Amino acid sequence: MKVLNYTKYVYLIVAALSIYKIIELWDKGTESYIFIAFAVVSLFMFFFRSYYAKRFEDYRKEKDQ
Fold first, then answer.
1. Global pTM?
2. Which class for 51: exposed (0-12), middle (13-18), buried (19 or more C-beta within 10 A)?
3. Residues 24, 35, 12, 48: what is their CA dihedral angle, to the nearest 10 degrees?
4. Contacts of 38 (CB under 8 A, 6+ apart)
5. How would you class 17 by CB atoms within 10 Å of its CB: exposed for 0-12, middle for 13-18, buried for 19 or more?
6. pLDDT truncated to tens, each residue of the chain (65 aa)?
7. What's the rounded Cα separation, in Å, for the pair 41 and 30?
8. Which of 15, 17, 58, 64 is most enclosed, with most CB atoms within 10 A?
9. DSSP collapsed to 3 states, the chain
10. Which of 25, 51, 53 is nearest to 39 (CA)?
């Protein structure tokens, strides 16, 4: 279960790499729509996973009391 706490950071890494690639391709004048989609989805998934991890943690604490 501890691994799931770290997998959300993989989404940040994918987003960072996608943003780097967007900037690199933008300077060349090439369309980079797929990398824009990867960046948006990765950032969404990071915040989604963070929100539900906190929500699950609060639920577990409440259940233990």
1. 0.81
2. exposed
3. 150
4. 14, 15, 18
5. middle
6. 677 778 889 999 999 999 999 999 988 888 889 999 999 999 999 999 999 888 988 898 888 87
7. 21
8. 15
9. CHHHHHHHHHHHHHHHHHHHHHHHHHHHCCCCHHHHHHHHHHHHHHHHHHHHHHHHHHHHHHHHC
10. 25
Structural tokens at position 22:
């967007």
Q: Following CA atoms 41, 36, 18, 54 in sequence, which dihedral angle do they give, to the nearest 10 degrees?
A: -20
One-letter identity of residue 51: Y
